[in-house]
Design goal:
This protein is an alpha+beta fold and 456 residues long. The chain has 14 helices and 17 strands. It has two domains: 283 residues, FAD/NAD(P)-binding domain (3-Layer(bba) Sandwich); 154 residues, Elongation Factor Tu (Ef-tu), domain 3 (Beta Barrel). Strands 6-2-1-7-17-16 form a six-stranded mixed β-sheet, with helices on one face. The chain has a six-stranded antiparallel β-sheet with strand order 10-11-12-13-9-14. Strand 12 and strand 13 form a beta hairpin.
């Protein structure tokens, strides 16, 4: 029996379940803390580990889709979450969906029966100050632990409400309409601008006012007061025809140099009536954030209405706008791509807490955080994955994005490094991303495979 000190994993969701499993499979004891059923969260209904609180779907199966590529990367790395998802899959067209009750019950039994995993049903109100700790408490972290995390990270590095605008793939924005410019030509032309004439704006405004909203959960309605500080774009539209034109769609000082100098009175009639601005989201300029478009519209409605904006007729969205209760840290300020905290290398985090979105991304974070906690315990160098893989790109992104504008990110092809050649056909392009990811993952040099029991 090993005499090593156990690693503490806090939170029994998908990330915590995966992290605990990887640590135990490396031969290191782990204590997994889950506060349910002692204390239930507003969204959970059972005491099982890895409970799926929203959909039962892990996303598209095809490996030329972002979620499917991530599924397959995790299969090749020995993920217990994806293994069990495959075992308990139910028919869902092209998606990986599971019998959620059987899935979470089986994972609970699997972990509870592992000789190196101790499952403790108790709430931790503070982060353990000593030893190796993996924090995977998710978007509904309990108030006491969230307060302790806030003290540790600093007041400005913890968010409690996720109000995020949609993010668009740059290649899908029409360059014949959108133009680069900064307001009054101040500084670098860092924004893409989609101009509207009066008729286009009024049509967009009417459709936005009538679009269908997603229903907030009861505990989210209680915190809806936060919306006033970050108003949904549809609520802004309902407050008056011109409200958006005095807010995020304000056209003043934005000029399209392709049509002359709009500051010249002779070009007054060419000035846009309203302008939608997009801000660069990543260093490579592949992703663009719709400025001021935080929204609670249903996702299908977002696609329909936002494609009415000139220049975004064929927009490809890698993340839709959201407004919901969430707890997440400012990962670019706080984390290395190994998922270790910069200020404490023995503290790691994973899951939605670090700003990734989706079930599979949570499992991927748990895999990396658990694997690296095990490596630190045995004196090995923590791993980073190739940035050309979906896992590697996701954790590179959350650790290097702009801290000022950081918002949670799901897996998507827009965060991968560009291909050497430009491929216009989207399906073909995604296939090349997949092939490169698999090749680079296969060539990736694991340090001491046998110790971590990684698949050959």
């Amino acid at each position: 029996m090993t005499t090593m000190q156990p690693i503490h994993v806090i939170g029994g969701g998908l990330a915590g379940t995966e992290a605990a499993w990887q640590i135990a499979q490396a031969g290191i004891p782990v204590i997994l803390y889950e506060m349910r059923p002692q204390r239930l969260s507003p969204a959970h209904h059972t005491e099982h580990l890895a409970e799926l609180v929203c959909s039962n779907s892990f996303g598209a199966q095809a490996t030329d889709r972002a979620s499917g590529l991530l599924h397959e990367e995790l299969r090749r790395l020995g993920s217990v979450v994806i293994t069990k998802a495959d075992e308990h899959a139910v028919p869902a067209g092209g998606a990986l969906a599971v019998d959620r009750a059987v899935f979470s019950h089986n994972l609970t039994e699997t972990l509870a029966s592992h000789p190196l995993i101790e499952l403790r049903r108790e709430e931790l109100r503070q982060i353990p100050r000593e030893g190796l700790v993996v924090l995977t408490t998710g978007p509904l972290t309990s108030p006491d632990l969230a307060e302790d995390l806030q003290r540790f990270t600093g007041m400005n590095y913890l968010s409690f409400f996720d109000a995020a605008s949609p993010i668009v793939v740059g290649e899908s924005i029409n360059p014949e309409i959108a133009f680069r410019a900064s307001r009054y030509d101040r500084g670098e032309a860092a924004y893409l601008n989609c101009p509207m004439n009066r008729d286009q704006y009024l049509h967009f405004w009417r459709e936005l006012c009538q679009a269908e909203q997603a229903e907030l959960k009861e505990f989210e309605r209680e915190t809806a007061k936060f919306f006033e500080a970050c108003l949904p774009i549809e609520e802004m539209a309902r407050r008056g025809e011109d409200t958006m034109r005095y807010g995020p769609l304000k056209p003043v000082g934005i000029f399209d140099a392709r049509h002359g100098d709009f500051r010249d009175p002779a070009n007054r009639d060419k000035r846009p009536y309203a302008v939608v601005q997009l801000r660069q989201e990543d260093k490579a300029g592949q992703l663009w954030n719709m400025v001021g478009f935080q929204t609670n519209l249903r996702w299908g409605e977002q696609t329909r209405v936002f494609r009415l904006i000139p220049g975004l007729e064929n927009a490809e969205f890698v993340r839709m706008g959201v407004m919901h209760r969430n707890t997440f840290i400012n990962a670019p300020e706080l984390l290395h791509p190994t998922l270790q905290f910069k200020s404490r290398s023995t503290l790691l985090a994973a899951g939605q807490l670090v700003g990734t979105e989706g079930y599979t991304a949570a499992a991927a974070g748990g895999w990396l955080a658990g694997t690296n906690a095990a490596r630190v315990a045995i004196g090995q160098t923590p791993l980073t994955l190739p940035p050309t893989t979906m896992m590697g790109a996701l954790f590179a992104f959350i650790s290097s994005a702009s801290p000022k504008h950081f918002q949670p990110m799901p897996p998507n092809f827009g965060i991968l490094p560009e291909l050497p050649q430009r491929i216009r056909n989207k399906q073909e392009r995604y296939g090349h991303y997949r092939d490169r990811a698999f090749a680079d993952l296969a060539a990736w040099s694991y340090c001491d495979r046998e110790t971590l029991q990684l698949p050959a």
